[in-house]
From TrEMBL:
<keyword id="KW-0812">Transmembrane</keyword>
<feature type="domain" description="Galactosyltransferase C-terminal">
    <location>
        <begin position="262"/>
        <end position="340"/>
    </location>
</feature>
<dbReference type="GO" id="GO:0008378">
    <property type="term" value="F:galactosyltransferase activity"/>
</dbReference>
<keyword id="KW-0472">Membrane</keyword>
<comment type="pathway">
    <text>Protein modification; protein glycosylation.</text>
</comment>
<dbReference type="Pfam" id="PF02709">
    <property type="entry name" value="Glyco_transf_7C"/>
</dbReference>
<dbReference type="InterPro" id="IPR027995">
    <property type="entry name" value="Galactosyl_T_N"/>
</dbReference>
<dbReference type="InterPro" id="IPR029044">
    <property type="entry name" value="Nucleotide-diphossugar_trans"/>
</dbReference>
<dbReference type="GO" id="GO:0016020">
    <property type="term" value="C:membrane"/>
</dbReference>
<dbReference type="Pfam" id="PF13733">
    <property type="entry name" value="Glyco_transf_7N"/>
</dbReference>
<protein>
    <recommendedName>
        <fullName>Beta-1,4-galactosyltransferase</fullName>
        <ecNumber>2.4.1.-</ecNumber>
    </recommendedName>
</protein>
<keyword id="KW-1133">Transmembrane helix</keyword>
<dbReference type="GO" id="GO:0005794">
    <property type="term" value="C:Golgi apparatus"/>
</dbReference>
<keyword id="KW-0325">Glycoprotein</keyword>
<keyword id="KW-0735">Signal-anchor</keyword>
<feature type="domain" description="Galactosyltransferase N-terminal">
    <location>
        <begin position="127"/>
        <end position="257"/>
    </location>
</feature>
<keyword id="KW-0328">Glycosyltransferase</keyword>
Length: 470
């Protein structure tokens, strides 16, 4: 074969090689398609996981194991029922493999900013003459080192806390930034906004609430977490929820709270400085502690892009709500740093349905349903901001009774089957005490498809090398 090939003209050989390569590629595609992993292969079995056995209500109600399984929108890969399994007395257990919570002692760092004696009694006023109606916005991201150097002599305390030395603003502002994977935008934000906060004589702290990889981004829940956690650290009474990509253009846009919850990012360059729709409440908003408590904070059930801001708008505009206000357009001008929508923040297809239920759900969905559904994995007082690395327990949120009516929705099913899970178990009762006979947790394995395509690529490359040497 090789002997014949060497006698052929180079053009013919090249043609053959290309033909062969294309053929091989097609073959690979075919093999890949034909032998794609079955549902079962996509999971790996995990044992020895911690059993999250806190759902005592479900247990005590004795929900039948089988019927409980049937509701689960996850695929049952295999079921095993041990000897003592009995349909009527069986119970379902929920599993969790979330990382253990951080040592709670680090949460206890309190801010301790000193102010000189004279400053304590004097209320701050804003020097209007120092403010500009059009400020220079710099959209180039500096490095972290440059940033830290720039602000090191401004009196910033670890965690990005700052307050004016010579007066007392009487308002403690927590700037809360829902965040995931936008490092360069954060640098642009800090570079432009720290000088503004200081110029406005604010007593402020910046809290970046960073959602760990996993389920789609949950902006509203991160803001609730920021509210709760910053309140543990300082005596804040005004909370400004801030998209990381928005930079204020008018210095008269004062970062304070008003009598009613306030929408601050009214006109944005990306939308040609036009108000997108009435009662919009996304971007930058300011709410006092009382406002937040009155509306039970934001909703926790909006995973992915969209809807969560309108949900808050409805909460505050409800007849018993605190009402909505916004700054005049000319003052609420912002630039949005250019960005694409992340894959990890896909559009929430359930948002319109959820929005129909806001007024029925808000009392049970929000600050009141936050406890135990997230953990702070790390909390760091970084030089320019406080970093809260957060894990959101999407399963716990979506298994809430309030979400029962949406459970069959494809978006919810998708969220529930993400990454994890399935258990097959044979729990039973012996002597009144619960015993679990066998639990297998299947964790979705991302490896097999990835490995296959990698192997496939290797095969093609090896073939190509052999062929070119023919
Ligand atoms: C609009 C709203 C925003 C929010 C969003 C829908 C305005 C000006 N903005 O923004 O408030 O309601 O629609 O959810 O009305 N983020 C990350 N990492 C991610 C994804 C989001 O950090 O992977 C944060 C970041 O702070 C970002 C914000 O969430 O600024 C909003 O997300 P976006 O910028 O992708 O959405 P956008 O611009 O459509
Ligand atoms: Mn944006």
């Amino acid at each position: 074969m090789a002997a014949i090939a060497t006698q052929l003209p180079i053009r013919v050989r090249l043609k053959r090689m290309t033909g062969l390569l294309v053929g091989l590629l097609l073959l690979q595609a075919l093999i890949f398609y034909k032998f794609r992993p079955t549902e079962k292969q996509r999971y790996t079995r995990k044992r020895d996981l911690t059993l999250n056995n806190t759902d005592s209500r479900r247990e005590s109600e004795g929900i039948s194991f089988l019927s409980f399984l049937a509701q689960y929108p996850v695929k049952i890969i295999s079921s095993f029922y041990g000897n003592s399994f009995s349909v009527n007395t069986s119970y379902a257990y929920r599993m969790s493999d979330t990382p253990s919570k951080v040592n709670s002692s680090i949460l206890k760092i309190k801010d301790s900013v000193t102010r000189n004696a004279e400053g304590l009694n004097k209320t701050c006023s804003i020097q209007e003459t120092a403010l500009a109606r059009r400020r220079m916005v710099n959209l180039n991201p500096p490095s972290w080192r440059e940033l830290e150097n720039k602000f090191k002599d401004t009196g910033l305390l670890p965690g990005g806390l700052w307050r004016p030395k010579n007066c007392n603003p009487n308002v403690h502002v927590a700037i809360i930034i829902p965040f995931r994977g936008r490092d360069s935008q954060l640098r642009v934000f800090l570079n432009n906004m720290i000088p503004l906060f200081q110029k406005q004589n604010l007593d402020y702290g910046i809290f970046v609430v960073d959602q760990r990889e996993g389920p789609p981004f949950n902006r509203a829940m991160l803001m609730n977490i920021g509210f709760m956690e910053s309140s543990k650290l300082g005596n804040y009474n005004c909370f400004i929820f801030h998209d990381v990509d928005l930079i204020a253009e008018n210095e008269f846009n004062i970062y304070r709270c008003a009598e009613k919850p306030r929408h601050m990012s009214v006109l944005i360059d990306k939308y040609n400085y036009k108000v997108l729709y009435k009662d919009i409440f996304g971007g930058v908003t300011a709410l006092t502690r009382e406002h937040m408590q009155k509306v039970n904070g934001f909703s926790n059930v909006y995973f992915g892009w969209g809807g969560e801001d309108d949900d808050m708008s409805k909460r505050i505009r409800d007849k018993n709500g605190p009402g909505l206000s916004s700054v005049p357009g000319e003052i609420g001008r912002y630039k949005m740093i250019k960005h694409q929508h992340e894959k990890s923040n896909p559009i929430n297809s359930l948002r319109w349905d959820l929005l129909k239920s806001t007024l029925n759900m808000w009392k049970s969905d929000g600050l009141s349903s936050l406890e135990g559904r997230y953990s702070i994995l790390k909390l760091e007082r970084r030089p320019l901001y406080t970093w809260m690395y957060t894990d959101v327990d999407e399963k716990a949120i979506l298994w809430d009774d309030a979400m029962a009516k949406y459970r069959k929705n494809s978006w919810v099913q998708y969220l529930l089957t993400l990454n994890h899970t399935f258990i097959t178990a044979s729990p039973s009762i012996s002597d009144g005490a619960r015993t679990i006979h066998s639990i297998d947790l299947f964790v979705k394995s991302p490896c097999i498809p990835k490995c296959l395509s990698f192997i496939s690529l290797c095969v093609i490359s090896i073939c190509a090398i052999i062929l070119t040497n023919l």
